[in-house]
């Protein structure tokens, strides 16, 4: 993330909500440290206080310090003066005929993301979260890829997508059983491995047992194949890995997923084989979008089987979801079934993913917000006016590819 929290300001009780750091994006250790640094809690009590606040924020979902009834009134007031718990605004809600829901969430002026809830996926329902606004990569079949990167989302903004979904689904306090939201997939807008710090912090928060408590085995991170970050992803998050493969040879993958020119298939496969703790209980999901006449022949299905030999894998065949102006067509149903049959015969579970939420442009690869990148000079002027520390440009910050 690129925004620096300046806690010295947090003692200023008159600080506006925009300037008060939001506590919901802090990991447990960072939360304890923030309480101490703000001078509100002595170091020896920080861990205990952090646990108390944690439960209110992440188990009960409160957005108001005054609801924390086991915290003294004076401390509640001081916390409210220094920190923020509020949610970002939901600016649009859409519900598909198939029950899929899409929310457009405004994180800040001009910074909007789409988050999608898909019922009956995973154990009971999956939330597809975004990690960036826009994307630096330009996969030719992806709508998000047509939107320039606006910026990385912060951990708080990633967690906020889960909180908003929970608000909307009425799932506070965190239910032990019969949840509607059981799985998280990082398959919304953006490339999660270009924002690994925030993604890893957000996963620490979402997976914590005394809070939202969605287990790491039910959290999947999908990447287009940023090979140097794979190991760190596994070690830091223990999340399930999904790879957007889409082609079995370099010339075609170079075209569909241009980052392949930098990290070609052989390197990608080596990186995947080294992903920590792979096994039959922890398989890699390979995503393969079915593009008519482009990558959907039986020859390519057989090449896929050869490519994945020895990798504990499952394959998700995704019928291409069209978007306005998209240059491809979805494969015919017969071609998809023939492709799947070859994979099945080779022993791979290869479900064909039923497109969900197509009518509200909520299906895979259809997400795109109206946010456009603000020119750096305009942003700096705005931040100066608001008294905020100037942030480096997310698109050129370390870890981001052009
Ligand atoms: N950037 C990450 C995660 C977001 S994309 C990645 O690329 O993996 C989530 C999935 O949707 C990816 O597998 C992506 O390739 C796929 N996808 C993108 N556009 C699509 C489209 N128009 N139809 C079907 N799937 C698409
Ligand atoms: Fe970015 Fe993923 Fe879309 Fe490619 S498929 S442009 S990496 S969001």
Write up what this structure looks like.
The protein is an alpha/beta fold and 402 residues long. Among the domains are: 19-82, DNA polymerase, domain 1 (Orthogonal Bundle); 89-247 and 258-282 and 351-366, TIM Barrel. It has helices at 28-37, 43-59, 73-82, 155-169, 196-207, 227-237, 250-256, 265-273, 298-307, 333-345, 376-386; strands at residues 89-95, 101-108, 111-119, 125-128, 132-133, 151-152, 183-186, 219-223, 240-244, 284-290, 313-319. The strands form 2 sheets. Strands 1-2-3-4-7-8-9-10-11 form a 9-stranded mixed β-sheet, covered by helices on one side. Strand 3 (111-119) and strand 4 form a beta hairpin. Helix 6 (227-237) runs parallel beside helix 8 (265-273) and helix 9 packs parallel to helix 10. The chain binds S-adenosyl-L-homocysteine (SAH) and iron/sulfur cluster. S-adenosyl-L-homocysteine is lined by residues 139, 141-142, 187, 191, 222-224, 244, 287, 289, 318, 320-321, 364-365.
């Amino acid at each position: 993330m690129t925004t620096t929290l300046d806690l010295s300001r947090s003692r200023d009780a008159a600080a506006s909500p925009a300037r008060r750091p939001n506590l919901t994006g802090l990991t447990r250790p960072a939360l304890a440290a923030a309480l101490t640094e703000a001078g509100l809690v002595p170091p020896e009590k920080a861990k205990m206080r952090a646990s108390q606040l944690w439960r209110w924020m992440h188990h009960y979902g409160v957005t108001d310090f005054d609801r924390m009834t086991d915290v003294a009134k004076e401390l509640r007031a001081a916390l409210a003066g220094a920190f923020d718990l509020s949610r970002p605004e939901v600016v649009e809600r859409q519900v598909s005929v198939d029950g899929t829901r899409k929310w457009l969430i405004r994180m800040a002026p001009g910074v909007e993301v789409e988050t999608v809830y898909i019922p009956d996926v995973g154990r009971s329902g999956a939330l597809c979260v975004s990690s960036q606004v826009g994307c630096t990569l330009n996969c030719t079949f992806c709508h998000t890829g047509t939107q320039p990167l606006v910026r990385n989302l912060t951990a708080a903004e990633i967690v906020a997508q889960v909180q908003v979904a929970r608000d909307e689904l009425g799932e506070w306090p965190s239910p032990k059983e019969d949840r509607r939201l059981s799985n998280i997939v990082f398959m919304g807008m953006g490339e999660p491995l270009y924002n690994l710090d925030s993604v890893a912090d957000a996963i620490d928060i979402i997976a914590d047992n005394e809070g939202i408590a969605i287990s790491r085995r039910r959290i999947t991170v999908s990447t287009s194949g940023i090979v140097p970050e794979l190991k760190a992803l596994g070690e830091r998050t223990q999340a399930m890995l999904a790879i957007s493969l889409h082609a079995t040879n370099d010339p075609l993958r170079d075209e569909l997923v241009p980052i392949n020119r930098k990290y070609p298939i052989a390197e990608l496969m080596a990186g995947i084989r080294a992903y920590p703790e792979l096994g039959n209980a922890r398989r890699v999901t390979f995503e393969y979008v079915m593009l008519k006449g482009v990558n959907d022949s039986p020859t390519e299905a057989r090449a896929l089987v050869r490519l994945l030999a020895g990798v504990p894998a499952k394959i998700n065949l995704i019928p291409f979801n069209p978007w306005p102006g998209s240059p491809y067509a979805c494969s015919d149903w017969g071609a998809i079934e023939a492709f799947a049959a070859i994979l099945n015969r080779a022993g791979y579970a290869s479900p064909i993913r039923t497109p969900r939420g197509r009518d509200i442009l909520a299906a895979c690869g259809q997400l795109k917000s109206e946010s456009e990148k603000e020119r750096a000079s305009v942003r700096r002027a705005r931040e100066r006016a608001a008294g905020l520390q100037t942030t480096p440009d997310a698109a050129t910050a370390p870890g981001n590819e052009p």
